[in-house]
Design a protein that fits this description.
By secondary structure, the chain is mainly alpha-helical. The chain is built from 12 helices and 2 strands. A hairpin with a 2-residue loop joins strand 1 and strand 2. The longest helix has 20 residues.
Length: 230
């Protein structure tokens, strides 16, 4: 009997195989990145506890302490664990892990480019993560405070800057600040139009704005560009 696997299962199998190949080859950075991908897939499946364990166990590999790139990869794993803690509603755990990742970034200094992670790792990318993690725990006020501490121009790519403005927009929407929310989405669109339009969370946010209050021509035009019109 032919068993059809869904996209998530195929992704899990590919990431798990990549981890085993990297382990056999003795490449700590590749092992760590494969584990981080597994943790992301577990979190998306709703397995936050497994995602947390996968990331933290991988971060404990002594091989990641031997180089700047290894330290950066370890920081990314701890960031991933922090986000899983946020998804569990563990605000204290999320903040502790995020602070640990921030300390690693400060210790390294500057931005560390990684072959398998386009955004690299830096104090700014950790702070970007903090915005999203605070919002995920249900604390938009803390998310906006984290955003005020991060100049978006310090982020290493237009995609990261678009993510910054999209996360800020989501937090503003939670606070009922509609006009500022729309301006933040427009700022995200200005940085990376396709990236912004393709994010389901952004389209859902725009749809919610259309249904929940005053609709302006500017908002309807944004909704049309993002494919979010009813």
């Amino acid at each position: 009997m032919l068993i059809k696997l869904d996209e998530q299962q195929l992704g899990w199998m590919a990431a798990d195989r990549a981890r085993h190949v990297a382990e056999a080859a003795g490449h700590p950075l590749a092992v760590a990145e494969a584990a981080r991908n597994l943790a992301v897939l577990a979190r998306r499946a709703g397995w936050e506890e497994q995602a947390l364990s996968i990331a933290l166990n991988a971060a404990d590999d002594p091989g990641l302490r031997a180089s700047r790139s290894g330290a950066a990869e370890r920081g990314l794993l701890i960031q991933s664990a922090a986000y899983s803690a946020a998804r569990q509603g563990d605000k204290a755990g999320m903040r502790e892990l995020t602070d640990e990742a921030a300390a690693i970034a400060e210790g390294i200094g500057g931005t560390t480019a990684l072959r398998d992670h386009g955004g690299g790792f830096s104090p700014a990318t950790v702070q970007l993560h903090r915005i999203s993690a605070e919002f995920s725990t249900g604390d938009p006020v803390a998310a906006l405070a984290a955003a005020r501490a991060l100049p978006p121009q310090s982020l290493p790519s237009v995609e990261r800057r678009a993510r910054y403005y999209a996360d800020v927009a989501a937090a503003l929407a939670q606070r009922g600040r509609r006009d500022e929310c729309v301006r933040a989405i427009l700022a995200a669109e200005d940085q990376a139009p396709q990236e912004t339009h393709s994010r389901p969370a952004v389209r859902s946010l725009i749809s919610g704005l259309l249904l929940s209050g005053r609709t302006t021509p500017e908002l309807r035009a944004l909704a049309a560009r993002a494919g979010a019109l009813p």
